[in-house]
Automatic annotation (TrEMBL):
An annotated GO BP: choline metabolic process
Organism, scientific name: Rhynchophorus ferrugineus
Catalytic activity reported: acetylcholine + H2O = choline + acetate + H(+)
Cellular component, GO, one term: extracellular space
Domain of life: Eukaryota
GO terms assigned for molecular function: acetylcholinesterase activity
Pfam assignment, any one: COesterase
Coiled-coil intervals: none
Name of the featured protein: Carboxylesterase type B domain-containing protein
Carboxylesterase type B domain segment(s): 35-162
InterPro entries given in the database record: AB_hydrolase_fold (IPR029058), AChE-related_enzymes (IPR050654), CarbesteraseB (IPR002018), Cholinesterase (IPR000997)
Record has tRNA processing as a keyword: no
Keywords associated with the record: Disulfide bond, Glycoprotein, Hydrolase, Serine esterase
Keyword match Disulfide bond: yes
């Protein structure tokens, strides 16, 4: 799975940078605003480190494409707060001989209240693990009910057997 292809940090952008983003649709993020956000998130980093982050998270063929800038900021947030710490923890555990497992939830719920640009967000899987789609008074589709059943079985099996 290419973790880079899926959004991970978009949810948090709305809370920390509400003036720059819209919940329901993609926002055109000007390049200077992109830099402002990076500088805010990484305010305790050196200028050289912030420049390296900008360099890594820039589509150099389309530097002024505000929609790509928005996507890249979401990737920065997701990588910095989720993917990198998760990988660091997994490597430490593996170095100590522990088994390490990952799962990556990629289903976007049909009834999501969040804009499609936000993709599948951190925590979206929780309602499936706890059977929320099985509540027939809610508007989940049959595929989502099946996914919830399979996830509950997989999590229960993992809890029982590792």
């Amino acid at each position: 799975m290419n973790f880079k292809s899926l959004p991970k940090g978009t949810y948090f952008l709305l809370y920390d940078f509400i003036d720059f983003f819209e919940k329901d649709g993609p926002s055109f993020l000007q390049r200077d605003k992109y830099h402002d956000i990076i500088d805010t998130i990484f305010k305790n980093f050196s200028q050289l480190e912030r420049d390296a982050i900008v360099f890594q998270y820039t589509n150099w063929e389309h530097v002024n494409d505000g929609y790509l800038n928005q996507k890249m900021v979401g990737n920065v947030v997701g990588d910095y707060f989720f993917i990198c710490p998760m990988n660091d923890f997994a490597e430490l555990a593996a170095e100590r001989g522990m088994k390490v497992y990952y799962y990556y939830f990629t289903h976007r719920t049909s009834t999501s209240l969040w804009g499609e640009w936000m993709g599948v967000m951190h925590g979206d899987e929780i309602e499936y693990v706890f059977g929320h789609p099985l509540n027939m008074s809610l508007q989940f589709n049959s595929r989502e009910r099946d996914l919830s059943l399979r996830m509950m079985q997989a999590f229960a099996r993992f809890a029982a057997t590792g």
